[in-house]
Amino acid sequence: MSLLAVDELTLGFGADADVVRQVSFELGAGESLGLLGASGSGKSLTALAVLGLLPPACQWRAGSIRFEGRDLAGLAPGERRDLCGGAMGLVFQEPFTALNPLMTVGAQVAEGLRLHRGLGAADAAGQAAAWLDKVGLQPGLEKAKLYPHQLSGGMRQRALLAMALACRPRLLICDEPTTALDATVQAQILGLLRRLQGELGFALLIISHDLAVIHALAPQALVMEKGLVVERGPVAGILAAPQSPAAARLLRAYGMLEGDSMSEGQGG
Amino acid sequence: MAAGRAFFRGPTLVAGLGLGLLALGALLAPWLAPADPDHIDILGRLGAPGLSHWLGTDALGRDVLSRIVYGARVSLAVGLTAALGSTVLGTLLGAISGYAGGWVDELMMRGADVLMCIPSLFLVLTLIVVLGPGIYNVVLVIILTGWTDIARLVRGEVLSLKQRDFVLAARASGATPARVLLRHVLPNAMAPVYVSLTFGIAGAIMMESGLSFLGLGVQPPTASWGSMLSEGRESLQEAWWLVVFPGLAILATMLLINQLGEAARRHFDPKGGL
Known about the structure:
The complex is a heterodimer of chains A (268) and B (274).
Chain A: E1 4-13, E2 18-27, E3 32-37, H1 43-51, E4 58-67, E5 70-71, H2 77-83, E6 88-91, H3 105-117, H4 121-134, H5 140-143, H6 153-165, E7 171-175, H7 183-200, E8 203-208, H8 211-217, E9 220-225, E10 228-234, H9 235-240, H10 245-253
Parallel strand pairs in A: 3-8, 3-9, 6-7, 7-8
Antiparallel strand pairs in A: 1-2, 1-4, 4-5, 9-10
Helix pairs in contact in A: 3-4, 3-6, 4-6, 6-7
Chain B: H1 2-7, H2 11-27, H3 29-32, H4 64-100, H5 102-116, H6 120-131, H7 135-161, H8 165-172, H9 177-189, H10 191-213, H11 225-233, H12 241-268
């Protein structure tokens, strides 16, 4: 049985056309899957649907999402919250806005531990510091006392990773985890993610418009465009010979495919 | 802390110290006041300011300075409790309204609209007449009529904050709606509330003085700055000190609080203007 099974998921806003159309994929425990697509292709909404965090205006029109065999649509809000943060973690695109500016990073990492593991304040703070150590914010005990504005982008992304992983989720969803970071920090974060996945064995759903990021973390990928899955297969195969125009366009934009990259007006 | 040092400097420091002294004076009134504020001395009535009575005596021969010192207790207590009460009420209602959205939001905001379109003095006077005069009713009425501005302010902040990533992140980590609201949304919405609170204190003190002036607030013989003005009005021709000194007390307090509020507004202004 797969850990996460998304089946014919269809989402839309109001009277508009569907923004996610019949998306299906499966992800086994400990596996990695990439979701490649340009902005507006519906990849982030798919991830939010898995977490149950769709914006109120977004309608769930068809399809199902099963996590460890349980249909997520049928869960009560309380059960849903137990899954979120406990069994699933999320890492955001923007490390600059994804941390509460008024709480120390230690307190933010500890919050999940207190919610899901029922730890007391002292235990949670101790474990939070250990997690900060683990993601490379050393020494964790000191870094835990810092506020987000005292950290650089890369350090914040590490703190977010510690937050998402603190309760040992079985699924980690990374939505453009490195887009806001510069190239060297990007490489460090990807390396860290790979190492932590090897260590902790969580399944990884990685969302990006950059196939290089996906290539660094996942062997398989889906390519989405306008809400549809237009291509799926091994990342190496997509890199070598993209079958869909959407994938080809993204690759060309990153200079990973021969051809005129910037002058084509059909992207976006 | 460093932030505290940066905040309290120049005129703001003066205002902070002045208000601190005023509060201390009100607290220590029984030891500071030169005489019993309610002690009547008919023979010494309408005495001019002098050595025995620094600020003179009123129509019943009571010491004006002592009454001002005791009156500070009423003014500050009413100002603080009423402003705090309406701020807390407004913050909670505004936060719930903004965070819940839907019909809850609609109901609360239309309720606030109704309250806001009635002139506040008229509303306060009507409520006081219904509830009866007295210091506790004054506080209650100021709270009941004063929460709407804050509620709107907080609602707006919450509406913009709840779209932010860190709020989504808190929800993604499985926090309950109440926890998300109280730990992640509200603390980040508080800056304009603090500013509004300081001006609210000034407004509440003015309101109490006004109501006491009209005889609807503090009841005699208790001294309040507003009731002293009202009583002094009758002997204004012979005894200017009965009106001037309580009036100065109100004026000075307003100036100090507004100075502090203005400083708070500048302090929390994201554009950082001076």
